[in-house]
Amino acid sequence: MNLDALLSHRFTPETLRYGPREVMLYALGVGLGAEPADLRFVQERDLAVLPGFPCVLGSQDDWFTAPGIGIDRAQVLHLEQRIETRRPLPPEGRVQVAYRLEGVADRGPRRGAAISFGKRLSDPATGTPYADLRYTILARGDGG
Q1: What are phi and psi of 139, to 5 degrees?
Q2: How far apart are CA 24 and CA 69, in angstroms?
Q3: Sequential pLDDT tens for the chain (144 residues)
Q4: What is the CATH superfamily name and number for domain 3-139?
């Protein structure tokens, strides 16, 4: 991994559109739909969005392969993930997704490097945040 290239990488914010189809497919994908209490997440009438839905919006992982960074995707492990919901997402709309690098911790030779980055989802018209997420990965082939 080229640390200087990683630290200087700039993530490009993106604006995404989603709708009831994506909201319902996410709910079905995480196992909802079998119980009557699940109906508000899997049917369009009075559709509600699961709090974990922001995790799958704007999965921007192209920085792994950005020129010069040199992280081997096959050596990457997902260590942790956290979400802080600021306000519920509507069942249909647009969101701006902005990533940022939050830290790199060298764990030593043959122990890898832990890389933390954040993601904010916000209303593109007002800038009001919907959710803040933090991810940490382990680049096992790096460090030392």
Answers
A1: -90, 95
A2: 36
A3: 888 999 998 888 999 999 999 999 999 999 999 999 999 999 989 999 999 999 999 876 667 777 788 888 889 999 999 999 999 999 999 999 999 999 999 998 888 999 999 999 999 999 999 999 999 999 998 877
A4: Hotdog Thioesterase (3.10.129.10)
Distance from C-alpha of 80 to C-alpha of 62, rounded to nearest angstrom:
19
Rounded to 5°, angle at Cα 62 from 95 and 17: 20
The residue ranges of every structural domain in the chain are: 3-139
0.90 surpassed by pTM: no
- 123 Cβ partners below 8 Å, 6+ apart? 93, 94, 95, 96, 129, 130
Tell me, what amino acid is at 94?
Answer: R
Which residue is it, tokens 């960074």?
Answer: 69
CA distance 97 to 122: 7
For residue 124, what are the contacts with CB-CB under 8 A and spacing of at least 6?
Answer: 15, 94, 95, 96
- Amino acid of residue 36: P
